[in-house]
Design brief:
The chain has one domain. It contains one helix and nine strands.
């Protein structure tokens, strides 16, 4: 019985690490949510939770992204948008970068 528990714990740890491996320097992830920092540069993209998010344009309060091949607009304070099986919301917009929250 203890071997099964150990095997289950190892399997859970490996699965958890598998979810986090999509995270890079611009992405910090928890178990099922990531904070993504995207540079405000043409064609800048980052992969998060297996989905690519690409910067398109931004103004003071609204950001347009291409997420999983679909263009979406996010506004500060708006509820999360469902795209590619993920919930995406805008946290902040600065001159250099935007920060979004992505969750399953």
């Amino acid at each position: 019985m203890p071997r099964r528990r150990i095997a289950a714990a190892v399997a859970s740890a490996v699965l958890g690490l598998g979810l986090l491996t999509g995270c890079g320097d611009d992405v910090s992830c928890g178990l099922d949510q990531c904070t993504v920092n995207i540079k405000r540069e043409t064609n800048y993209s980052v992969e998060v939770l297996g989905v690519e998010a690409k910067f398109v344009s931004a103004d003071e309060n609204t950001v347009t992204l291409d997420v999983a091949g679909e263009k979406i607009q996010l506004t500060k304070g708006q509820q999360a948008v469902d795209v590619g099986g993920l919930q995406v919301s805008l946290s902040s917009v600065t001159q250099d970068a935007i920060q979004i929250e992505v969750s399953r």
